[in-house]
Request: fold
Amino acid sequence: MSTNVSPGWVRAAAVADVSDGEVVGVAVCDADIALYNIGGKIYATANICTHALARLSDGFVDGESIECPLHGGRFDIRTGKGLCDPIKRDLKVFRVRVLGDEIQIEM
Reply:
């Protein structure tokens, strides 16, 4: 267990696990989380599309958006905002910090 965890912050992955321009799904505290590396900055959202329960980590990163693999809805990775139909509800986003080689999210 990491010594760099403070109340509310939980290890999600190693920085090396999330390549630039990629999305990776992880389980954190029984939550399904999508981690993204966009130009060296790490972001975290819920991993399940709000439209049809597909895993966003199976989707496609395009710049600062993620496209759901099921029906093509897109979300802004930075804010969780739904960007087009059929999305009607935004994604939950999580605060992220990087300590050393570790990605942590606030739960």
User: Anything to note?
Assistant: Confidence is low (pLDDT under 50) at residues 1-5. The chain has one domain: 9-106. The domain at 9-106 is CATH 2.102.10.10 (Rieske Iron-sulfur Protein). The chain is about 0% helix and 45% strand.
